[in-house]
């Protein structure tokens, strides 16, 4: 039986793990009786998914215990056999081992399974004879005897010590617990951990289990012959399978060769048919290609003719555009050359004007200086004579000379009191900049400019009658306090100055001239403004607020013309003149020191001068109240002659009359036209070219205007009716004069 088989006769691979291919280490037994190392079995369990695993050798499924590897039984029998084999190999190699008794490294001759340590020869004899180790003696194995070499499994079991309790490790196990998987337990455990379990005596339980196992072994042996005959049957079937495979292979080869021959025949036939079909297709392709070439040549001929015509048409069109472009730029260059000549002429005129003005001012200053020198000599002579007579104490001399001396002193005192207000103005004269020549058309800005209230003006309820600017960008407005019909107190003329953003700077009042409060103004120089009314012309200095004036009626030679109402004023920088227009044909001309020069008349086609402005040596005049026409006139021998007439706007069938005129820095001309359409006054602003002969743009400047017609004259009704228009037109003159293709921030004064 297997129990009598010597251990050395057992196959060596019986003790090898099929996973790591090494001797078992802590072997665990599966239900299929295959063994694996504890670590190898743990790896198998980790690779499995679920609650079951398959044995790597027989593929039988087994349930994985809840405790994992520890839940499988340890194969103590295999473990004991491995322990003995290791002891035997160690003895055969004569390895030095530490004796458990003498603690010296010697060749071991025995092994105590109870001590689980090696013994040397001397200590093993002591171990066998000493009564102290009487319970060890049955468990001592002599490694050098023949008995050790022929050790059977039964003898090995007798040598090994009974297992100890799995809880009380120091106590020998007397019972086994079937409830817990036949684990060894001591008597103490029957009252504690294993109380109520199915407990058995180890000897009785082992005998019973051994008898059951022998019965199973007999049953297995019944099928032994059948099991060993099965490989022969399988080999026989394999031989028959090989023979059948050989026959089928030969049959398949024969069928393949037959089918291959048949397919090759069909391929040859198909090749011939393909070649024949390809030749036919190539023939038909060649014929159709010839037809296509013929058709293409015909179509290309037609297309070429069509596009030749298109190209000729395009050439004619672009040749025409090129000619027009050349003509346009020829005209442009001609205009530029003409403007260059004009600019050169203006430059010469300005040079001559500068020399003339300088000479005039120098001569006047020399006259004043010569007069002062003579006056000083008279004063010194009079002073010396007076002192001499007073010192002589001669009564006859005093009686005869003192009356004459006193009379001479009175006239001398009057002349010494004389002031020269024009003296300051002689140091300042205006020479205009040469207007920048350009061919670009400047359009009026489309944005509406808001009218804002300026501090102090609305509160005082001023009437604005004139507005202009100075060379340093300040805005000058002239107006008056309101006229009351129940009072004969004349309105007080006022001048207000604002910066370019509408911020109030200063205010001045000028003496009133009777009941006439309507005044007009224009720029004279960088810091000076000309102000006129019906019988007064003056120069206002914005720096210190000084105002120098003269009476028009006292200096003009034509008394009849001097009673005409003044309607406008302008300065001519080229001729160094101040031109004052009236509501008649008469025009007064002053120099920049307010010295009267002469009075002239407008041409017969002009009835009145509603507004005037100087433009490149000519005078632009609007006549709203009489002719409703606008002209450009030129002075020749102190008489004005017509140069050209401005074209009236053709808009809404209105009878448009020109009210105001001004120019911008580029020389473009702007005229405001007014007409009554359906009982409502409308006002537009027309931009003309620099030569005044072409209208460029038109826009409305006062869609809500209610401006009364009639000739200007003194009195509150006229002031109240035209004050707003004077303000608006003065504002537009100021705005246009400061615009060159871009919008400036202008803040005009609001009316009450």
TrEMBL record:
Signal peptide span: none
InterPro entries cross-referenced by the UniProt entry: 6-blade_b-propeller_TolB-like, TRIM45/56/19-like, Znf_B-box, Znf_C3HC4_RING-type, Znf_RING, Znf_RING/FYVE/PHD, Znf_RING_CS
Matching SUPFAM superfamilies: B-box zinc-binding domain, Calcium-dependent phosphotriesterase, RING/U-box
Pfam families xref list: zf-C3HC4 (PF00097)
Location of the B box-type domain: 94-141
Domain RING-type, first and last residues per copy: 17-59
Region ranges (Disordered): 257-289
Keywords: Metal-binding, Zinc, Zinc-finger
SMART domains: RING
GO molecular function: zinc ion binding
UniProt-recorded name of the protein: RING-type domain-containing protein
Organism the protein comes from: Stichopus japonicus
């Amino acid at each position: 039986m297997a129990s009598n088989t010597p251990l050395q006769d057992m196959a060596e691979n019986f003790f090898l793990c099929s996973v790591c291919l090494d001797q078992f280490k802590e072997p665990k037994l599966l239900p299929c009786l295959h063994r694996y190392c504890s670590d190898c079995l743990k790896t198998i369990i980790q690779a499995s998914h679920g609650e079951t695993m398959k044995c790597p050798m027989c593929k039988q499924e087994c349930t994985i215990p809840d405790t994992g590897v520890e839940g499988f039984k340890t194969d103590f029998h295999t473990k004991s056999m491995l322990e003995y084999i290791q002891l035997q190999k160690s003895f055969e190699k004569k390895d030095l081992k530490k004796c458990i008794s003498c603690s010296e490294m010697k060749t071991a001759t025995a092994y105590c399974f109870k001590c689980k340590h090696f013994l040397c020869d001397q200590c093993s004899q002591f171990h066998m004879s000493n009564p102290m180790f009487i319970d060890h003696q049955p468990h001592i194995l002599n490694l050098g005897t023949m008995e050790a070499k022929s050790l059977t499994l039964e003898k090995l079991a007798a040598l090994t010590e009974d297992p100890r309790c799995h809880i009380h490790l120091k106590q020998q196990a007397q019972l086994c617990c079937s409830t817990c998987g036949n684990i060894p337990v001591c008597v103490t455990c029957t009252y504690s951990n294993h109380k109520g379990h199915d407990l058995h005596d180890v000897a009785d339980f082992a005998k019973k289990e051994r008898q059951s196992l022998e019965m199973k072994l007999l049953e297995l042996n019944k099928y032994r012959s059948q099991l060993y005959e099965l490989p022969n049957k399988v080999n026989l079937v394999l031989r028959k399978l090989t023979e059948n495979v050989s026959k089928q292979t030969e049959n398949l080869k024969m069928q393949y060769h037959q089918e291959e021959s048949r397919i090759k025949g069909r391929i040859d036939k198909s090749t011939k048919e393909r070649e024949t079909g390809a030749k036919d297709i190539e023939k038909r392709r060649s014929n159709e290609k010839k037809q296509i070439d013929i058709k293409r040549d015909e179509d290309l001929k037609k297309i070429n003719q069509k596009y030749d015509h298109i190209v000729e048409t395009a050439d004619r069109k672009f040749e025409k555009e090129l000619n027009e472009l050349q003509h346009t730029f020829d005209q442009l260059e001609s205009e530029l050359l003409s403007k260059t000549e004009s600019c050169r002429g203006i430059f010469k005129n300005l040079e001559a004007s500068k020399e003339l003005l300088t000479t005039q001012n120098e001569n006047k200053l020399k006259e004043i200086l010569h007069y002062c020198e003579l006056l000083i000599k008279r004063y010194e002579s009079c002073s010396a004579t007076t002192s001499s007579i007073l010192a002589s104490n001669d009564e006859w001399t005093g009686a005869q000379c003192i009356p004459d001396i006193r009379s001479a002193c009175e006239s001398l005192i009057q002349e010494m009191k004389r002031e020269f207000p024009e003296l300051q103005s002689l140091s300042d004269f205006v020479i205009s900049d040469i207007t920048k020549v350009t061919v670009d058309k400047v359009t009026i800005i489309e944005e509406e400019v808001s009218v804002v209230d300026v501090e102090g003006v609305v509160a005082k309820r001023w009437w604005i009658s004139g507005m202009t600017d100075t060379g340093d960008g300040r805005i000058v407005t002239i107006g008056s306090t309101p006229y009351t019909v129940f009072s004969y107190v004349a309105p007080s003329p006022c001048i207000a100055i604002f910066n370019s953003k509408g911020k109030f700077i200063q205010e001045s009042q000028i003496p009133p001239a009777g009941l006439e409060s309507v005044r007009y103004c224009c720029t004279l120089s960088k810091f000076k403004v000309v102000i006129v009314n019906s019988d007064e012309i003056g120069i206002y200095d914005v720096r210190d607020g000084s105002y120098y004036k003269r009476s028009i009626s006292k200096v003009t030679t034509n008394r009849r013309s001097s009673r005409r109402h003044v309607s406008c004023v302008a300065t001519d920088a080229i001729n160094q003149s101040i031109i004052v227009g009236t509501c008649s044909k008469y025009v007064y001309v002053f120099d920049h020191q307010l010295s009267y020069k002469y009075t002239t008349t407008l041409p017969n086609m002009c009835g009145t001068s509603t507004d005037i402005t100087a433009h490149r040596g000519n005078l632009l005049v609007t006549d709203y109240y009489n002719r409703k026409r606008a002209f450009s006139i030129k002075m020749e021998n102190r008489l004005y002659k017509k140069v050209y007439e401005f074209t009236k706007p053709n808009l809404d069938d209105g009878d448009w009359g020109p009210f105001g005129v001004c120019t911008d820095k580029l020389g473009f001309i702007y005229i405001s036209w007014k007409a009554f359409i359906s009982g409502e006054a409308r006002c537009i602003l027309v931009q003309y070219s620099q030569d005044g002969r072409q209208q460029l743009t038109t826009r409305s400047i006062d869609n809500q205007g209610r401006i009364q017609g009639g000739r200007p004259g003194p009195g509150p009704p006229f002031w109240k009716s035209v004050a707003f228009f004077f303000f608006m037109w003065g504002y537009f003159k100021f705005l246009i004069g400061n615009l060159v293709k871009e919008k400036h921030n202008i803040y005009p004064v609001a009316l009450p």
